[in-house]
Amino acid sequence: MYLTLRLYWEIAKRAFQRQLAYRTANLAGLITNAFFGYVRAAVLLAAFSGRGSVAGYDAAQVVTFTWVTQALIMVVNLWGGIGVGDTIASGAVVSDLSKPFSLTGYWLSRECGRAVYFLAFRCAPILVIGHLVHGLRWPQHPTTWPVLAVSRALAVAISFAWGFIIELTGFWTLQTKGIRQLALGVLMFFSGFVVPIPLFPDWLQTVAYALPFASITQVPGDMFLERLDAAQTVHALAGQSIWAAAMIGAAQALVTVATRRVVTQGG
């Protein structure tokens, strides 16, 4: 058990170190994310002009929510692109499947290392920029920060599992690009990234909260704004935990099915 955990720790650490080599790319991405964060915030500010609040959000809260979700893009890997799909297309996945560790655990460890890097070098700077431009509403209670840390970790796990499952379809299809684009659209809309879910019609809110995607951006965003009381926070974390466990379990089950397919076709 210790050796397995040590292995995944080393994989995560190397994924973090690998990202350090792309400083220029990160700077370009940071500037791009900050620019679109400003644009998104400006659009919502215009929509809230002359209104006290909408669906429980005032102008300051909706701007903060916009910058928080913008800052989380790379942390939760909203655009997808984990990499396992490329190994399936090239055939390198066969080598990965023959190694003495879980394929799901390997890619999840890589994703965790990558997420920590972007939390420090993309998320934090974007929040600072957002505060300088618009003046964000920061958490007022010290206990909010550890809760946020747990919520973001669970959001990373859920987002990883969704992307991982989508890329695993490469075992059955020649091209996954169309599936991945469709999955991205569903994720962005139902996660609350495009528009906060409380601004949806009631029936659509019910649908959105019944899906796992709200746990990726809407829940961490609401926790940052401290919109949830203690009972709601516990409920939200429990929901994220259940979704994380269920989706990672589904991903592992799909790996098992895919492995049988590889063995059947490969002899």
Rg from Cα: 19 Å
Averaged pLDDT: 89
| SSE class | mainly alpha
Distance between the termini: 32 Å
Task: Count the E strands.
Answer: 0
Shape: globular
The largest pleated sheet is described as: none
What count of helical segments does DSSP give?
A: 11
Number of domains: 1
Name the helicity range: over 70%
List low-pLDDT spans. Answer: none
Binned strand content: under 5%
- The helix/strand series, from N terminus to C terminus, equals HHHHHHHHHHH
Q: Could you walk me through the main structural features you see in this protein, from its secondary elements to its overall organization?
A:
It is built from eleven helices and no strands. The chain has 267 residues and is mainly α. It has one domain (2-266).
Strand and helix map with partners:
Blueprint lengths: L1 H19 L2 H26 L10 H13 L12 H7 L2 H5 L5 H32 L9 H25 L8 H14 L11 H9 L7 H7 L5 H37 L1
Helix pairs in contact: 1-6, 2-3, 2-6, 3-6, 3-10, 6-7, 7-10, 7-11
List keywords for this structure.
single chain; 267 residues; mainly alpha; 0% strand
Brief summary of the model shown:
By secondary structure, this protein is mainly α. It has helices at residues 2-20, 23-48, 59-71, 84-90, 93-97, 103-134, 144-168, 177-190, 202-210, 218-224, 230-266. Helix 1 crosses helix 6, helix 3 (59-71) packs antiparallel against helix 6 and helix 7 packs parallel to helix 11 (230-266).
